[in-house]
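User: Show me a protein chain along with its predicted structure.
Assistant: Here is one chain, sequence first, then structure tokens.
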Amino acid sequence: MGREQGFPATNLALRCAGIAFLIASLAALVSAQEAKAPVPTLASAAVPFYPRVPQQAHIEGVVRLRISTDGNRVTSVEVESGQPMLVQAAKENVKTWQFERHTPTSFETTFRYRIFPTKCDSQCNCEGVEKRTALLRLPTEEEVSAEELMTCDPASETVDPKTGNLHLTIPIRASTKKQ
């Protein structure tokens, strides 16, 4: 009479819940330790550049990569997100990275590609608002920027005040050198 029939099932359910909690706690601990793993120190790397075709096409964007190392060099690069032409430039850059000796690890890096506007006058004298830069917080963040590429037509238009006719002047460059 002292025991209820449901007691063994309740005991088993409590044990299963305890084991599930323990497994979840261990997984969270391992994940937290991986997240806190120090990022390796870079010993050398090529300066990233803005690829020409995306620059001409005014393509900007963010590229996120997952990098794995062998304790000295990059061994694999996984693309997490990004425009394909910018991804290619970012992948080529990280392949140049060499690290100070460290325990093999994996970490994320982010490349931000940005194009600054350019202003041109009627004589095709163009000046960028900002200059090409590469701001490096290696190996986790890279900001790569470039001036907007402009196609300029140096033709000038003037209106004759007497007749109201539009005159188009196109400079012609001639060379006296024999080729």
